[in-house]
Design goal:
mainly alpha, about 0% strand, 8 helices, globular, single chain
């Protein structure tokens, strides 16, 4: 049980800590087009991300998949650039965008999972089984993402209901800010120079 709790905390910190800005920006861009009325859809969306993340962690831990760290560090902000750019370009086609986000969450979750793969490989390799560590980590990750989603939805509710911010303005503002930050990250991490 102690191992499970250790990995649960690790998963929680992986999404909640100040070092997790890339994951936080991805979640923000991913759910920016949704509203607090879409909680079920959002939870399915972040779970799709966790599933993708989990698959990559498992494959990496079992030494089936290895991607150079410099490429992973570049690809992660690139996924955020693409997601936020989709929000901007498809702001008038929200149903299509919401549908596409499920695929983006799963596919890009695979890439984000590689970001923690090297650390996980070293830590979990000491364990007899990868099941408990991966389960604990992924539950912690999911709880962290749900907490982040709830905070974002509370902020969105306050902005829309109290300050009467236009929903399309919210999407454009958030997506543009996330796009700028993630583009800067991607440009700083270009793996070939």
């Amino acid at each position: 049980m102690q191992d499970f709790i250790f990995y649960l905390k690790l998963g929680w910190e992986h999404i909640i800590s100040l070092d997790a800005l890339d994951h936080q920006l991805f979640i923000l861009a991913l759910i920016a087009v949704y509203s607090y009325n879409n909680l079920k859809k959002i939870l399915i969306l972040v779970t799709a991300f966790t599933i993708g993340h989990s698959v990559t962690l498992a494959l990496s831990t079992l030494n089936i998949l290895r991607v150079p760290g410099n490429w992973v560090e570049f690809l992660i902000p690139l996924t955020i650039v693409i997601t936020s750019l989709d929000n901007i370009l498809m702001k008038n086609k929200q149903k299509s965008l919401m549908q596409m986000n499920y695929y983006l969450a799963m596919i890009f979750g695979l890439i984000h999972g590689m970001g923690f793969a090297n650390t996980a490989r070293m830590m979990i390799a000491k364990e007899q089984s990868i099941f408990v560590p991966l389960l604990g980590f992924n539950i912690g990750l999911e709880l962290g993402q749900i907490t982040l989603v709830i905070v974002i939805l509370i902020l969105l509710f306050i902005l829309l209901k109290i300050f009467r911010v236009n929903r399309k303005d919210w999407i454009l503002f958030v997506s543009s800010g996330v796009f700028a930050l993630s583009l800067k990250m991607a440009l700083e991490r270009i793996p070939f120079s």
